[in-house]
Amino acid sequence: MLFSYYLCLLQNVEFTMARWDIPFGFYFFYFDVLS
């Protein structure tokens, strides 16, 4: 669920958040696994 939300959010701010793509990707990945 969070992953799908992240993908949707990423598409909207892809150019702005390009630098944070991988860091936020790992953050949401671990957050989803731990929760």
TrEMBL record:
Protein name: Uncharacterized protein
Source organism (scientific name): Arundo donax (Giant reed)
